[in-house]
Protein backbone atom coordinates (compact mmCIF):
# COMPACT_ATOMS: atom_id res chain seq x y z
CA UNK A 1 0.00 0.00 0.00
CA UNK A 2 1.10 3.51 -0.68
CA UNK A 3 0.60 6.11 2.03
CA UNK A 4 -0.93 9.42 1.10
CA UNK A 5 2.18 11.28 2.32
CA UNK A 6 5.86 10.73 1.36
CA UNK A 7 6.64 10.40 5.09
CA UNK A 8 3.64 8.51 6.51
CA UNK A 9 2.24 9.37 9.89
CA UNK A 10 1.99 6.75 12.62
CA UNK A 11 -1.71 6.35 11.87
CA UNK A 12 -1.01 5.80 8.16
CA UNK A 13 1.79 3.36 8.96
CA UNK A 14 -0.55 1.32 11.15
CA UNK A 15 -3.29 1.40 8.51
CA UNK A 16 -0.92 0.27 5.74
CA UNK A 17 0.45 -2.51 7.95
CA UNK A 18 -3.12 -3.61 8.67
CA UNK A 19 -4.02 -3.75 4.97
CA UNK A 20 -1.07 -6.01 4.27
CA UNK A 21 -1.69 -8.19 7.34
CA UNK A 22 -5.40 -8.54 6.54
CA UNK A 23 -4.52 -9.39 2.94
CA UNK A 24 -2.13 -12.13 4.08
CA UNK A 25 -3.99 -13.62 7.04
CA UNK A 26 -7.60 -12.47 6.73
CA UNK A 27 -9.59 -10.23 9.04
CA UNK A 28 -9.02 -12.51 12.00
CA UNK A 29 -5.47 -11.13 12.23
CA UNK A 30 -4.78 -9.81 15.70
CA UNK A 31 -4.15 -6.22 16.70
CA UNK A 32 -0.89 -7.44 18.20
CA UNK A 33 0.35 -8.78 14.84
CA UNK A 34 -0.59 -5.53 13.11
CA UNK A 35 1.16 -3.52 15.79
CA UNK A 36 4.30 -5.63 15.39
CA UNK A 37 4.26 -5.08 11.62
CA UNK A 38 3.89 -1.33 12.12
CA UNK A 39 6.58 -1.18 14.80
CA UNK A 40 4.23 0.15 17.47
CA UNK A 41 2.46 -1.17 20.57
CA UNK A 42 -1.06 -2.68 20.47
CA UNK A 43 -2.16 0.10 22.80
CA UNK A 44 -1.09 2.71 20.22
CA UNK A 45 -3.19 0.97 17.55
CA UNK A 46 -6.25 1.23 19.79
CA UNK A 47 -5.34 4.82 20.68
CA UNK A 48 -5.44 5.82 17.00
CA UNK A 49 -8.43 3.73 15.85
CA UNK A 50 -10.46 2.84 18.92
CA UNK A 51 -11.03 -0.78 17.86
CA UNK A 52 -10.04 -3.32 15.25
CA UNK A 53 -13.42 -2.82 13.55
CA UNK A 54 -12.68 0.87 13.12
CA UNK A 55 -9.24 0.03 11.75
CA UNK A 56 -10.87 -2.43 9.34
CA UNK A 57 -13.28 0.29 8.17
CA UNK A 58 -10.45 2.75 7.51
CA UNK A 59 -8.55 0.06 5.59
CA UNK A 60 -11.66 -0.45 3.45
CA UNK A 61 -11.76 3.26 2.63
CA UNK A 62 -8.05 3.36 1.76
CA UNK A 63 -8.15 0.29 -0.49
CA UNK A 64 -11.21 1.56 -2.34
CA UNK A 65 -9.56 4.97 -2.80
CA UNK A 66 -6.42 3.29 -4.18
CA UNK A 67 -8.47 1.23 -6.63
CA UNK A 68 -10.37 4.29 -7.84
CA UNK A 69 -7.18 6.29 -8.29
CA UNK A 70 -5.43 3.46 -10.15
CA UNK A 71 -8.38 2.83 -12.48
CA UNK A 72 -8.82 6.52 -13.31
CA UNK A 73 -5.07 6.98 -13.87
CA UNK A 74 -4.98 3.98 -16.21
CA UNK A 75 -7.93 5.34 -18.20
CA UNK A 76 -6.21 8.71 -18.57
CA UNK A 77 -2.95 7.09 -19.65
CA UNK A 78 -4.56 4.90 -22.30
CA UNK A 79 -6.83 7.69 -23.56
CA UNK A 80 -3.81 9.97 -23.98
CA UNK A 81 -1.82 7.34 -25.86
CA UNK A 82 0.59 6.46 -23.06
CA UNK A 83 1.69 2.89 -22.50
CA UNK A 84 0.50 0.87 -19.52
CA UNK A 85 3.27 -1.74 -19.37
CA UNK A 86 4.55 -0.11 -16.20
CA UNK A 87 1.29 -1.23 -14.57
CA UNK A 88 2.38 -4.84 -15.04
CA UNK A 89 5.80 -4.07 -13.64
CA UNK A 90 4.13 -2.60 -10.56
CA UNK A 91 2.10 -5.75 -9.87
CA UNK A 92 3.88 -6.28 -6.55
CA UNK A 93 2.90 -2.78 -5.46
CA UNK A 94 -0.79 -3.44 -6.05
CA UNK A 95 -0.74 -6.99 -4.65
CA UNK A 96 -1.90 -5.98 -1.14
CA UNK A 97 -4.99 -4.30 -2.63
CA UNK A 98 -5.91 -7.43 -4.56
CA UNK A 99 -5.24 -9.66 -1.58
CA UNK A 100 -7.40 -7.41 0.58
CA UNK A 101 -10.27 -7.58 -1.92
CA UNK A 102 -10.02 -11.38 -1.95
CA UNK A 103 -10.19 -11.51 1.83
CA UNK A 104 -13.29 -9.30 1.73
CA UNK A 105 -14.90 -11.75 -0.69
CA UNK A 106 -14.00 -14.72 1.47
CA UNK A 107 -15.12 -13.01 4.65
CA UNK A 108 -18.58 -12.27 3.26
CA UNK A 109 -21.20 -11.03 5.69
CA UNK A 110 -22.52 -7.47 5.82
CA UNK A 111 -19.06 -5.86 5.86
CA UNK A 112 -17.76 -7.86 2.88
CA UNK A 113 -20.99 -7.30 0.96
CA UNK A 114 -20.86 -3.57 1.61
CA UNK A 115 -17.23 -3.47 0.45
CA UNK A 116 -18.05 -5.20 -2.85
CA UNK A 117 -21.11 -3.02 -3.44
CA UNK A 118 -18.89 0.03 -2.97
CA UNK A 119 -16.46 -1.41 -5.53
CA UNK A 120 -19.35 -1.68 -7.98
CA UNK A 121 -20.49 1.89 -7.29
CA UNK A 122 -16.93 3.10 -7.85
CA UNK A 123 -16.75 1.11 -11.09
CA UNK A 124 -19.78 3.02 -12.37
CA UNK A 125 -17.83 6.23 -11.73
CA UNK A 126 -14.57 5.30 -13.43
CA UNK A 127 -16.41 3.61 -16.30
CA UNK A 128 -18.23 6.90 -16.86
CA UNK A 129 -14.81 8.57 -16.81
CA UNK A 130 -13.68 6.14 -19.52
CA UNK A 131 -16.75 6.88 -21.64
CA UNK A 132 -16.15 10.62 -21.35
CA UNK A 133 -12.48 10.11 -22.26
CA UNK A 134 -13.53 8.26 -25.42
CA UNK A 135 -11.89 5.02 -24.27
CA UNK A 136 -14.99 2.99 -23.34
CA UNK A 137 -18.18 2.49 -25.30
CA UNK A 138 -21.33 3.63 -23.48
CA UNK A 139 -23.76 1.00 -22.22
CA UNK A 140 -27.54 0.77 -22.25
CA UNK A 141 -27.30 0.14 -18.51
CA UNK A 142 -24.04 1.42 -17.03
CA UNK A 143 -24.77 0.15 -13.53
CA UNK A 144 -25.62 -3.36 -14.69
CA UNK A 145 -22.49 -3.50 -16.86
CA UNK A 146 -20.27 -2.32 -14.03
CA UNK A 147 -21.77 -4.89 -11.67
CA UNK A 148 -21.21 -7.67 -14.19
CA UNK A 149 -17.61 -6.67 -14.89
CA UNK A 150 -16.67 -6.38 -11.22
CA UNK A 151 -18.31 -9.67 -10.22
CA UNK A 152 -16.92 -11.46 -13.28
CA UNK A 153 -13.37 -10.30 -12.57
CA UNK A 154 -13.56 -11.16 -8.87
CA UNK A 155 -15.29 -14.46 -9.57
CA UNK A 156 -12.66 -15.58 -12.06
CA UNK A 157 -9.94 -14.66 -9.61
CA UNK A 158 -11.59 -16.61 -6.80
CA UNK A 159 -12.04 -19.66 -9.03
CA UNK A 160 -8.42 -19.52 -10.17
CA UNK A 161 -7.20 -19.46 -6.59
CA UNK A 162 -9.62 -22.21 -5.56
CA UNK A 163 -8.65 -24.54 -8.39
CA UNK A 164 -4.95 -23.69 -8.31
CA UNK A 165 -4.16 -22.54 -4.77
CA UNK A 166 -0.69 -21.09 -4.21
CA UNK A 167 1.78 -23.12 -2.18
CA UNK A 168 2.21 -20.17 0.14
CA UNK A 169 -1.14 -18.37 0.75
CA UNK A 170 0.74 -15.40 2.21
CA UNK A 171 2.61 -14.85 -1.09
CA UNK A 172 0.23 -12.19 -2.38
CA UNK A 173 2.63 -10.92 -5.05
CA UNK A 174 3.04 -14.43 -6.41
CA UNK A 175 -0.74 -14.83 -6.64
CA UNK A 176 -1.05 -11.55 -8.52
CA UNK A 177 1.70 -12.44 -11.00
CA UNK A 178 0.20 -15.87 -11.63
CA UNK A 179 -3.23 -14.40 -12.25
CA UNK A 180 -1.89 -11.74 -14.62
CA UNK A 181 0.12 -14.28 -16.60
CA UNK A 182 -2.93 -16.43 -17.32
CA UNK A 183 -5.73 -13.89 -17.46
CA UNK A 184 -4.64 -10.47 -18.67
CA UNK A 185 -4.25 -11.28 -22.36
CA UNK A 186 -7.70 -12.91 -22.81
CA UNK A 187 -9.31 -10.26 -20.63
CA UNK A 188 -7.87 -7.32 -22.57
CA UNK A 189 -8.55 -9.08 -25.88
CA UNK A 190 -12.17 -9.66 -24.87
CA UNK A 191 -12.64 -6.05 -23.78
CA UNK A 192 -10.93 -4.70 -26.91
CA UNK A 193 -12.14 -6.98 -29.70
CA UNK A 194 -15.26 -8.59 -28.28
CA UNK A 195 -16.35 -12.12 -29.15
CA UNK A 196 -19.18 -12.13 -31.67
CA UNK A 197 -18.75 -11.01 -35.28
CA UNK A 198 -22.41 -9.94 -35.48
CA UNK A 199 -24.80 -8.11 -33.15
CA UNK A 200 -27.72 -10.34 -34.12
CA UNK A 201 -27.97 -11.99 -30.69
CA UNK A 202 -28.13 -8.60 -28.97
CA UNK A 203 -30.77 -7.29 -31.38
CA UNK A 204 -32.92 -10.37 -30.85
CA UNK A 205 -32.56 -10.14 -27.07
CA UNK A 206 -33.54 -6.46 -27.03
CA UNK A 207 -36.86 -7.33 -28.69
CA UNK A 208 -37.96 -9.26 -25.62
CA UNK A 209 -36.67 -7.22 -22.70
CA UNK A 210 -37.83 -3.85 -21.38
CA UNK A 211 -35.57 -0.86 -21.69
CA UNK A 212 -33.29 -0.41 -18.67
CA UNK A 213 -34.26 2.31 -16.21
CA UNK A 214 -32.98 5.73 -17.16
CA UNK A 215 -31.29 8.11 -14.77
CA UNK A 216 -33.67 10.74 -13.46
CA UNK A 217 -32.96 14.20 -14.88
CA UNK A 218 -31.28 16.59 -12.52
CA UNK A 219 -33.64 19.33 -11.34
CA UNK A 220 -32.23 22.88 -11.55
CA UNK A 221 -31.46 24.33 -8.16
CA UNK A 222 -33.69 27.10 -6.88
CA UNK A 223 -31.84 29.88 -5.09
Automatic annotation (TrEMBL):
Residues 30-49 bind DNA. Gene3D superfamilies: Tetracycline Repressor, domain 2. One of its GO terms (molecular function) is transcription cis-regulatory region binding. The keyword DNA-binding applies. SUPFAM superfamilies: Homeodomain-like (SSF46689). The keyword DNA-binding applies. Residues 8-67 form the HTH tetR-type domain. Keywords: DNA-binding. This is TetR family transcriptional regulator. It comes from Nocardioides albertanoniae.
Amino acid sequence: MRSTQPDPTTRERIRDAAVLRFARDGFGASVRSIATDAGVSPALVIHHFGSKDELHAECDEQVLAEIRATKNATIDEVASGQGILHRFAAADEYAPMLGYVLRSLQDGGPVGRTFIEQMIDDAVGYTKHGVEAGLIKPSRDETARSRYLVLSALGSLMLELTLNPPKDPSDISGMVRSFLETSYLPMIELYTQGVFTTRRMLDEYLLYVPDPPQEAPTEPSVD
